[in-house]
Structures are given as structure tokens and as C-alpha cells.
Design goal:
The structure is a single chain. With about 375 residues, the chain is mostly helical. It has one domain. The chain is built from 14 helices and 2 strands, in the order H-H-H-H-E-E-H-H-H-H-H-H-H-H-H-H. The protein has a two-stranded antiparallel sheet with strand order 1-2. Strand 1 (about 95-100) and strand 2 (about 100-105) form a beta hairpin. Helix 4 runs parallel beside helix 6, helix 5 (about 105-130) packs parallel to helix 14 and helix 6 (about 135-155) runs antiparallel to helix 7. The chain is globular and about 60 Å long. Mean pLDDT is about 85; it is low at about 370-374.
């Protein structure tokens, strides 16, 4: 079997990995020393990630598909154990703390398990029904939604609203390319709009009733989200000041003029922009855009249907996170705690992205591969 590495995907990832370590090092100026050298840790996580990429790139994706439901159940068990025995960090039970290693966030890997599960379900549905009727499609949508709903509820209870949003984006992206009738999207849009309108009506005009029904925790989470429209808050104000004062070429590497929280994670883009200015931002956006385009081009090749569905989920997740993270950093979108893929610090998130890179390379590098799975 001959292998041909897809450098059009590999090179942007290498560039982003270098950018990530450099910018996280720059962010150490305002990072608590108790967290250690996050840049070194990120480099180590990248090292582990590249090992996973090599392994997955040489494995057939069939191996993952054959163990889809085991992985899905395993992921949900981890989320449940996290609620029962997880160590609270910042009032959230999102991580298992492993002494000597760090913290592991199961919701990051659940994204992959959801993609594998949905790809398998969509593929089987298309094979079983050449011309499905409305009832068949409804039952399929119901089953697939339940598959996403279970980890969404467990993750929301941690609470981790950002991860839940990503689950739903993955679901919508994969269902959109599944070939079901478009009327389902129109009908779902109307129903969802009605639910959201009722939800927001209670939030804005019936505060006491809202808190009685949904609890104060959800109320304050929403309050944080809606505060973005006022442009208020230390984090957003200082991040925008750092970006706005950077000019064309920035303040220089490792020179971030003002403090803002989460500088190595949620607001890593602000650190990059303050260091390298408008020119650096354009170059970074070009690399990100180039990577997205190469993934889209891969999906247009003659590949197995399951792989097409996986690529749709990966694209939906990446583009949503890229737009949301950069948008919230510059005050155009609500602050949701969603990180910038391949750049923000985070062991679990980085490993999950590298696993997806391995899956993408696995799809693209092997010539004359014969798929025998259903």
C-alpha cells in the first residue's frame, strides 16, 4: 500500500502549532505561576498529539467505526462519573484531575464520539432506505437527536454550555449533508424560534418565573452572555484595548500591554493580535482559512460516505469555533468560553483536534484503498 501525505492539511497544522506555543509563551506574562510553564506543556501535548496523528493516519477509519458505540457509551460514562466524582474547578465539574499529568476534559473527546456515532447512523439509514418517507426520516431524526441529547444534558450539568453548543453544531452540520428533506430544517427552525422566543421572554420580562423554572445558575450564565452587547467587563474591555492599540505591526512579540483573564485560552487571539498587529492577524486568518478550504476540497473527492459525514462534522465544529472565538474576542459575539482550535492552550482539546487531523489524513493519504465496511 502506497501512502501520500496531504501536505495541504499538514503544513497549516504545523504552522498553527508553532504559533500556539509562541503565543502561549507570550501570554505567560499574565498567567498565574501556579499553572506552570503552559507553553512547555502545550509543546508536550503537541508532541503526544503528533504521535496520535501518525497512529491514526496509518489505521483504517473502519477500526473506529467498528467500535463507535463502545466509544460513545464510554464517553457518556466518563461524563456521568465526572458529575459524581469530578473535582470542581471554578464551580464547574468539567475535568478529571490526574496528579502528575494534569486535567482531562471528557467533553472534548465526546465531540469525536458523537461524530463517529452520527456518521454510522446516517450511513446505515441511507443504506436501509433508498427512498425514505417522512415517517422514516422523522424516526431517524428522533434517534439521532437522542444520541446527541444524552451527552448534551450530562455536559450542560457540569456546566459547560460551550461544549453543548459545539455538539449541536456538529449535529446540524452532519444532518444537513445527510440528504434528508429540507423541509425538516424549515419546520425545526420555526419550532426552535418559538422555543427561544418563549425562553428569552421569560428571561427578560419574567425574571422570577425564569429562575423558578430554570434556576439561578442558568440565569446568571445567560446574563454573562448578554453582557457582551454592552461591551462591558474587564476581560472584553482590556482585550479590545490590547488589540486596538496594536496598530499595523503590533507591540512586538512577548509585549502584551494590558492584563485580561484567560489570556492563554479563551482570549489567546487578543494576545496574538496585540503582539503582531493587523498584518499578523491577516496572516493568521489566511492560514486558518486555507486549512478550512483544504478540508472542504477533501470532502469533494471520491471517498466513503461515512468519511464525508465525518468531514462535515469536523468543518462545522472548526468554523463555528473559529468564528465564535475571534468574534467574542473583538466584541462582535457573546463570550461563551469557546477556545480557538489548535492555538488556545488545553491538553484535552488539543489532543481531540489532533485525533481529528489523524482521521482527515487517514481519509486522504492512502491510495487504492478498498472500503469493505457498511
Amino acid at each position: 500500500m502506497k501512502y501520500k501525505i496531504n501536505y495541504r492539511i499538514l503544513i497549516p497544522i504545523i504552522i498553527l502549532s508553532i504559533v500556539s506555543v509562541l503565543v502561549i509563551y507570550s501570554a505567560l506574562t499574565y498567567t498565574s505561576t501556579t499553572l506552570g510553564n503552559l507553553a512547555l506543556k502545550q509543546a508536550i501535548w503537541y508532541g503526544v498529539g503528533w504521535i496520535l496523528v501518525i497512529i491514526l493516519a496509518r489505521l483504517k477509519n473502519e477500526y473506529l467505526y467498528q467500535h463507535t458505540w463502545f466509544l460513545y457509551i464510554f464517553g457518556n460514562v466518563l461524563l456521568l462519573l465526572l458529575l459524581l466524582f469530578g473535582t470542581p474547578i471554578n464551580n464547574s465539574k468539567c475535568w478529571f484531575v490526574i496528579p502528575g499529568i494534569g486535567s482531562i476534559q471528557p467533553s472534548e473527546f465526546m465531540k469525536i464520539f458523537i461524530m463517529l456515532s452520527l456518521a454510522t447512523m446516517i450511513h446505515n439509514f441511507r443504506c436501509d432506505y433508498n427512498n425514505p418517507n417522512m415517517k422514516d426520516e422523522f424516526l431517524f431524526l428522533l434517534k439521532s437527536f437522542i444520541v446527541v441529547l444524552i451527552p448534551s444534558v450530562l455536559t450542560f450539568l457540569q456546566p459547560d454550555t460551550g461544549a453543548v453548543l459545539i455538539y449541536l453544531i456538529i449535529y446540524l452540520s452532519m444532518i444537513f449533508v445527510s440528504g434528508i428533506r429540507f423541509r425538516w430544517f424549515i419546520g425545526s427552525g420555526f419550532i426552535l424560534s418559538a422555543i427561544v422566543c418563549g425562553f428569552l421572554y421569560l428571561y427578560f420580562f419574567k425574571e422570577n418565573i425564569f429562575i423558578k423554572i430554570f434556576g439561578s445558575s442558568i440565569y446568571y450564565r445567560l446574563e454573562r452572555v448578554f453582557n457582551w452587547s454592552k461591551g462591558s467587563g474587564l476581560q472584553l474591555e482590556n482585550a479590545m484595548s490590547a488589540i486596538g492599540s496594536a496598530g499595523m505591526f503590533g507591540h512586538g512579540y512577548n509585549h502584551t500591554p494590558i492584563y485580561f483573564p484567560e489570556s492563554s485560552t479563551d482570549f489567546i487571539f487578543a494576545v496574538f493580535a496585540s503582539n503582531f498587529g493587523l498584518v499578523g492577524v491577516f496572516l493568521l486568518l489566511f492560514v486558518i482559512f486555507y486549512l478550512d478550504i483544504q478540508i472542504i476540497l477533501l470532502s469533494r473527492k471520491k471517498i466513503e460516505d461515512k468519511d464525508k459525514y465525518i468531514i462535515a462534522g469536523i468543518l462545522g465544529m472548526l468554523i463555528f469555533q473559529q468564528v465564535q472565538n475571534i468574534g467574542m474576542t473583538v466584541g462582535l459575539l457573546p463570550i461563551t468560553g469557546i477556545t480557538l482550535p489548535f492555538i488556545s492552550y488545553g491538553g484535552s482539546s488539543l489532543l481531540s483536534y489532533m485525533l481529528l487531523v489523524g482521521i482527515l489524513l487517514n481519509i486522504s493519504i492512502k491510495k487504492n484503498r478498498v472500503y469493505k465496511y457498511r
